[in-house]
Amino acid sequence: MDNGIHFISGLPRSGSTLLAALLRQNPALHAGITSPVGSLFGTMLREVSQGNETAVMIDDAQRQALLSGVFDNYYHAIHPKKTVFDTNRVWCTRLHIITTLFPRAKVICCVRDVGWILDSIERMIRQNRWELSKIFDFDPAGTMHSRIEGLASRNGMMGFAYNAVKQAMHSDEAGKMMILTYETLTREPVYAMQAVYDFAGFPPFSHDFENVLFDAREFDARLGTPGLHSVHPRVLPPERPTILSPDIWRRFEGENFWRDPSFNMRGVQIV
Question: Any idea what the CATH number is for the domain that residue 90 is in?
């Protein structure tokens, strides 16, 4: 990657799209919503592992070259000109691999109070009342409680990402990651972006927090979830009451592990 690569990961509905939209204002940077690279990377990794009988013909140097090639070939038209930020929640589980492939890479992990993540998803499902969402396999049945159970399960949209961030925070590569809270990004965007730039080693850039542009309408429509990657033109924290029932809210109220100093044993930077 000629101009370097970094990663955006973390929890869903936690500001990764907003962060990407802001980074894109800088002509030296490229960022976007979840790219195909994570799934292509996983497929390549599986095919060069011992689960494939022909893997006996592939050594570790070839594996490394093939996996690196996934990034080079996908971003071939971009990386000669810009530094890339690739977005995928899976990168927190692959920190040991991506930091070997790209030793200078940093990972920005977006997080948000878990209750508000679940509230945001449930609110979106209700707003799109004439659509069924791929998030729930286009299932017309279900209740708020069953949807929350699915999201929070170990392989669910939120549960998987939640455990992935915890794993990354306690890995040998934890120094390569920074936790960026949604609350800081939306309430103190100047401070938040400066922290990202400092962490990634970029020169300062003056962002426009009053005119943020991003469009993924076609992608969201294919998911049956219009508005999934919408960002407001002006960076502001949302102010609204929750639509979650009190039992659900209480269940997740104390699950924001990044706020517990005793959990952060590796001293990960939290913004």
Answer: 3.40.50.300
- C-alpha span between 7 and 2 (Å, rounded): 15
How far is Cα 18 from Cα 12, in angstroms, rounded to an integer?
12
Q: What residue has token string 């948000």?
A: 112
- When pLDDT is cut at 50, 70 and 90, the band that residue 202 belongs to is very high
**Torsion angle in degrees (nearest 10) through CA of 30, 31, 34, 36:** 0
Q: What is the pLDDT of residue 2?
A: 54
pLDDT at residue 130 in the model: 87
Q: Which residues constitute the domain of residue 58?
A: 5-270
Most confident of 40-54, 112-126, 176-190, 235-249: 176-190
CB 3 within 8 Å of CB 79: yes
| Pairing label, strands 107-111, 177-181 | parallel
Domain count, the chain: 1
List, in order, residues 6 or more apart from 213 with CB less than 8 Å away: 21, 233
Distance of alpha carbon 88 from alpha carbon 12, whole angstroms: 10
